[in-house]
Amino acid sequence: xxxxxxxxxxxxxxxxxxxxxxxxxxxxxxxxxxxxxxxxxxxxxxxxxxxxxxxxxxxxxxxxxxxxxxxxxxxxxxxxxxxxxxxxxxxxxxxxxxxxxxxxxxxxxxxxxxxxxxxxxxxxxxxxxxxxxxxxxxxxxxxxxxxxxxxxxxxxxxxxxxxxxxxxxxxxxxxxxxxxxxxxxxxxxxxxxxxxxxxxxxxxxxxxxxxxxxxxxxxxxxxxxxxxxxxxxxxxxxxxxxxxxxxxxxxxxxxxxxxxxxxxxxxxxxxxxxxxxxxxxxxxxxxxxxxxxxxxxxxxxx
Length: 302
Hints:
By secondary structure, the protein is an alpha/beta fold. It has helices at about 40-55, 65-70, 80-85, 100-115, 120-135, 140-145, 150-160, 165-170, 175-185, 190-200, 210-225, 235-275, 280-285; strands at about 20-25, 30, 60-65, 75, 90-100. It has a 5-stranded mixed β-sheet. Helix 1 (about 40-55) packs across helix 3, helix 7 packs parallel to helix 9 and helix 10 (about 190-200) crosses helix 12. The longest helix has about 40 residues, at about 235-275. The chain is rod-shaped and about 115 Å long. The chain starts with about 20 loop residues before the first strand and ends in a 15-residue tail after the last helix.
């Protein structure tokens, strides 16, 4: 269950001066990796080469909550550096040692790993979700990510729905959050993919999603009528392009028809005004009690 933002969240660790932090050389084989994170071979080789040539610049971060009883440390951050030391057969590694509850250590580890994920990685999204589940409030996550709490709330909604394609597109800047949220509410996964493809091909904008989604749903319902779903034409971005073109032509035709009727009406009113300006015609009309000109309600011709 996702914790409410009104509940107290685990407070992020304050920044401490070096004089109050504990650093030590600890045995490499005394560190347990609680939650391993995958890493690329190229990056790992680069880490090994750098440490072999230049030594370790940044110590790993470990939790000593159980060290007094087990003699073991729990790794919070620095798995790549630890593995590089193992690869180089080193016995000792420099570490910063903290003593925090396991839940706090887990959140610290998630926060560290999240900042290292490429922005387009779905792992970033799931790390954010896990931090929220562990107690970080929307305010905490807003501070970490640099986005508003409303953005974080909507983002977490996408994660909870499993909208990986939308999350990737959002992080890559392919479309705005408004578009992603509208697509996520579409009831059919096929419609979601078509909408994303249509946006990518610049067929629609975020403002048009609702109209186009209804168009797609109507098309799919019509295709399903009578149990003929398997026989209907597959709905794709290309068929959507054609449907939008047809709708545009129909709208243009309707506008032209309305404009034509409006023009004929104005011509009729102009002819009546000219007739009414003629004294003979006006006298004849008044004789038959038709001297009052008709009036139009509303504004026309503006």
